[in-house]
Amino acid sequence: MPPEQVVNPEQKSAYDSPWPDSQRVLRVLWEFCWVIFCSWTPKPLNEWRLFWLRVFDAKIDGKPFVHQRARIAVPWNLTLHDRACLGDRANAYSLAEIEIGARATVPRKRISIPAATTSIWRDFRWLQRKSQLAKMHLSARALLFCPA
Description:
Radius of gyration: 16 Å
Shape: globular
Number of helices: 2
Distance between the termini: 28 Å
Number of strands: 12
Number of domains: 1
Strand content: 25-35%
């Protein structure tokens, strides 16, 4: 079994939450807003969902598409470029930043990245390397396939 790894330097132990109290409150508020204002909306109300992502400081460039059943844990760490697509039941969860490039598509299931691993998709090559709180980037015109 690997030794305990503390991801956030301000963490006292590996068993403590990596999230400060202020971010935990923001995450609860975000989940509440997404469920009440966005999860029930039909596909044509994509602008409404993008509005709520902008309220929570997501970086949005152009007109991306976010499905109403997409799960976004930390919108302030999310960057979506023009015509990027976060599809049905995609789960964007990471302690670090997630950037989805122009015309890139995450069709379903997940982008779920543990804090100690970086996954980068560039030009249809999949790379993985160990690091702390590195950024995830899905390049332009990429398509991420997730096993069922």
